[in-house]
Amino acid sequence: MSTPKFPSTLFPILIFFFSELSYPCFGDVGAAGQYTSPYIPTECYSDDPSEFPSNNLFAAAGGGIWDNGAACGRQYKVRCISTPVPASCVDPEATIQVKIVDYANTAVSRPEVTSGTIMLLSHEAFDVLVNTTGGAPTTTINIEFQQV
């Protein structure tokens, strides 16, 4: 009995089809909430506002990222992968770069999510990733992130 042969012309079509169904994973997965003002004082820089990036894309690190304060100043690429409100990620392939300036567990603005790997994103960073206009508000999102 012979083994049926797979048509070689079908292989490239299947590769294309399956590649369009998924997004590549570039890092770790966690949750993010919105970090609201007042942002100062911070665990990393106390009352020094000059340590905040000029584009206001910054975050507070949760316990899984904090590393006893070693996370201060680290830069992370972050992208929204899903939200409780369907289609709230502005662009599932878009990434932003944030700087860690605070510890989420002691931040003036405390997270709603307290377990797992979390980040609190500045208002500006959250708005770049998530459509916050119209519909039900999204306060927590699932993210992929990678240290740069």
UniProtKB/TrEMBL annotation:
Keyword tags: Signal
Cross-referenced Gene3D superfamilies: RlpA-like domain
UniProt signal peptide: 1-27
Domain Expansin-like EG45, first and last residues per copy: 30-148
Pfam families xrefs: DPBB_1 (PF03330)
Keyword Signal listed: yes
CDD domains: DPBB_EG45-like
Superkingdom as given in the UniProt entry: Eukaryota
PROSITE patterns membership: EXPANSIN_EG45
Stated name of the protein: Expansin-like EG45 domain-containing protein
Organism: Opuntia streptacantha
